[in-house]
Design goal:
Oligomer: single chain
Strand order of the largest sheet: 1-3-5-4-2
Strand content: 15-25%
Number of strands: 5
Shape: globular
Largest sheet: 5 strands, antiparallel
């Protein structure tokens, strides 16, 4: 099972690249790879690609994290899944640096890719739709490698709310008594 998240990098690209390439986290940089750039000079190469864009925007890059269930995957397979994910997300049009961290209880990938592609210099549009696309690609790759995937609605707030209502035996919606014309919903704390 892999969990993904993506966030923009707006200011300190070289610090983010230094963090993900930390030799203590990447088996002496054995688990660092890149596409369209050299990982040693990625910040400079990203800056050149960004300088070619008509719409500069405020994002320098995007930081995609893919974390795996503890003990479910070895680091070589995780790195390969990360490479396949990065290739699919960037469609071969954005420079990226991929690292696999093995310093915590779970193996996880960091992918930093340039906010502008090097083909036609358009910005990557990060939104809910593209994020769910990333999740779907990650899930597909996990299935192809025999890993589990996160099932929809498991552990979601909807399920927690339903079980709380059942525990309190409070009906949903309007209550005839003590309502005075207002909708009544149980107070639920998360």
């Amino acid at each position: 099972m892999a969990v993904t998240k993506i966030k923009p990098i707006k200011g300190t690209l070289n610090k983010a690249l230094d963090y993900i390439q930390n030799p203590e986290k990447t088996d002496g940089k054995m688990l660092v790879s890149s596409f369209g750039c050299s990982y040693e000079t990625a910040d400079i190469e990203f800056a050149f690609t960004l300088s070619q864009a008509l719409d500069k925007g405020s994002n320098l890059a995007n930081h995609l994290i893919q974390a795996f269930e503890p003990g479910e995957v070895d680091y070589q397979t995780a790195h390969e899944i990360g490479r396949q994910l990065a290739d699919a997300v960037t469609k071969g049009q954005h420079e990226y640096v991929l690292t696999t961290h093995i310093d915590k209880g779970h193996i996880h990938n960091h992918i930093i890719f340039c906010a502008v592609n090097f083909v036609d210099h358009h910005k990557y549009n990060s939104n809910k739709r593209t994020y769910y696309g990333i999740r779907n690609i990650s899930d597909r790759l996990c299935r192809e490698h025999g890993l589990s995937v996160v099932l929809p609605n498991r552990g979601s707030k909807g399920k927690a709310m339903q079980s709380t209502r059942q525990r309190k035996q409070v009906p949903v919606g309007r209550q005839a008594e003590n309502c005075r014309g207002r909708a009544h919903y149980p107070s639920i704390k998360f």
